[in-house]
Amino acid sequence: MKRATNTRHKPAPAPLPATSEWSFDSIEQYHTEIARVAKDYGLDTYPVQIEIITAEQMMDAYASVGMPVNYHHWSFGKQFISTEKSYRRGQMGLAYEIVINSDPCIAYLMEENTLTMQGLVIAHAAYGHNSFFKGNYLFRTWTNADAIIDYLLFARNYITECEERYGEEEVELLLDSCHALMNMGVDRYRRPGKLSVAQEKLRQQEREEYLQSQVNDLWRTLPAQELRDDERSRRPRFPAEPEENLLYFIEKNAPLLEPWQREVVRIVRKVAQYFFPQRQTQVMNEGWATYWHYTLLNTLYDEGLLADSFMLEFLQSHTNVVAQPPYNSRWYSGLNPYALGFAMWRDIRRICEDPDEEDRRWFPEIAGSDWRETFDFAMRNFKDESFIAQYLSPRVMRDFRLFAVLDDDREDKLKVSAIHDESGFQRVREILSEQYNLGNREPNVQVWNVDLRGDRSLTLRHQQHQRRPLGDSTEEVMKHVARLWGFTVRLETVDEAGEARLIHEAKVERPGRYAGVEVA
Amino acid sequence: MARIIDRRFDSKGKSTVNRQRFMRRFKHQIRKAVSEAIHGRSIRDLDNGEQVSIPARDLSEPILHQGRGGIWEQVFSGNDQFSSGDQIKRPSGGGAGGGGGKGEAGNEGEHEDDFVFQLSREEFLDLFFEDLELPRLIRTQLACITDYKTRRAGFTSDGVPANINVVRSLRGALGRRLALGSPYHARLRELQQELDDALDELGEDSAPVLALRDQIGRVRAKIDNIPFIDSFDLRYNNRVKVPQPTTQAVMFCLMDVSGSMDEDRKATAKRFFMLLHLFLTRTYERIEVVFIRHHTVAQETDEEEFFHSRESGGTVVSSALVLMRDIIRERYANGQWNIYGAQASDGDNWQNDCAVSRDLLTQDILPACQYFAYIEITDGDPQNLWQEYESVRATRNNFAMQRIQSPADIYPVFRELFKKSLS
Prior knowledge:
The complex is a heterodimer of chains A (520) and B (423). By secondary structure, chain A is α/β, with parallel strands linked by helices.
């Protein structure tokens, strides 16, 4: 492909330092140049805040899911210990960078890295990811970059306060239960309200009182006598529509939770929601950032600013990042989102600038168009699933030699359903797109009914997708749900034919007591 | 313009809290791992951290996810042999050949490794010695202080001549002389002035002049009479005795190596000594260990020989006690040692020797010891030595005894022996 070249003509600036040791000055120089080139390419970003940290601090950041502030929980400790262990043994290098979707966008640079790596990270994180965070519709819709740090600070203080008031153990059990449902605690379609520390604090108390009164209202009527089954099935369900956000439903409706417990559920839910877009844009986001560090640094090289030694080190590490081992390699662990994303973005540019006959047939609307506009449109309006469905080209499928395998547990053998040939492109693309559909990757479990007049039991329904059953930790999760709900919780699974059957039932030993469930 | 912030000197150990939470939460498992680790270690390398492994299942965080089964259709890279419609044998164990659902299966933990991590030395020992304390230790530290160290503490006005501080004393003397002499000096100056006036007016040999000369002479004599140094001026270096907690201990390991003690029993005894030693290491700066083994005669040995050489024959326990007593008198009698005794035996003793042993213990050894522990390693009924020692236990509170049947009993027994209530 053609080198990215800068269209502006300026007197050649002095070359950037080429040492391997970094200094604050040299980082600043690199940043200035990278920022300039990024601006020329029209990348729209949040202001950048670069923070230099040690390896140990990087591990801290790892442990608290990349956030600079987070509440305390043993699972973060576990994460920290295992990261530390593999790092100390040299089994694992730490990621070069962590970047936080906040305004200003915080990019961590690790002290141990060479100057080349710092340059790479600045281009990758501070301009690649940063512009994606700012532009992509999922992030724009679901996260508030300017408030997240504040919110986490609020969350940590609130949870610490709860620990002081109600005991660490009590809070820990509650968090365990919430974490078990974290992935089921996101709104997939509804836009959540804005988060802001000031409002949050103000509203938190009102909410407490209000919610409690709502819940009490729900349970005011004494349980009537047992109803016959047919009568029960005719009674309108509660909630009237199934609710996909389990944590939300629990926060609003669990009868026995204390107000502070509802607030904690809410905090976990908000954090889950914040990370939701990241889970849906891995290929796009990583590919985008990789594409831009590659392009920005190459542009600087073409301008004569970068030394050959810099480029060699950079290219070596870039090559590692975008390596895609074949299915039968011992290093294979699925498709590498960096590799796939990078290849796709590069290919989109090629289609714009230098389309061949095949591209014109497959992508009439972008072939020959202005690549920067096309990029901007694609970056803003897609997630992995739709991005692949829209832009995965036959060329990339051929280069990756993609093929799809059908595994039906009713068949003896696996079947290759499509490969990278003329008849298979469409199918491979569909399958890959489905594979990145979070709705298919995660089980579809929704709140189905609450027995309002009876034993107050909660019924969840699992809608089977492709006859896939639930995994083996389901029983544990059900115990957690029961702990939050306070009464019996049932889980039904609905097969393809629409038949529902009960698969799990978590009973609460002494209904009415919050911690009455034994959870191993 | 970007901000560049150097965070390297910010507070470290943000994860410390989370790590502690983790430790607390899995204390049960970690403690179990620790006591298992003890079984596998030898006495000298106990003082290190420990690799602890916890079954990953115990600390998994459950989530709802899709399990195996049903239909999975997935895309793989690097096709080298397949065409559409090919049938592939289902790889066993989800090999890389493309078993559908492989990616997801990773979540399920088909072959979960244990979660292994390193406890620091402190964490290891803390777990080990939690709520465990040597008896009478506090008493030793608070009451039975036997060692003092002298330290300077300013100056005092009396003491022995060897401690006189010359500079201080002379400074005091000078001050005193100035203070006492100043009225005389003033008077002297006055008289001198008068004398000079009188000399000018009246000349030599007049009566006032002579009188003045006489007075001047007397004042000078008074000045001369102020002593150059007085006992009142003397200052002595002051030294105080500061009680110094004894930081050394000696531990006597007594073991029966007669024919009836087989290798298993010796191993059990060894673990017991090991634990005691470790605890002492933690409490005292310096520890000496004396190994005494005995059958019919007792002998002091080094550690290697103590645990590993084989002897046979009958058992005379008192021989070891006599040797212990002699060693105490010879080497550890100056009151600067905390003496601990630990005896392991199968309880089988020569019948006539039991009473002798008891007397030795009560009269000579226990009074000198901080603590003496006896363990009897036997499967059967208590042996004769046990019965004899029971009477000792009734009268002495720094004596403890326990019976152990297998190595697995060691840890609880150790805790039993040294649990806090005893102190």
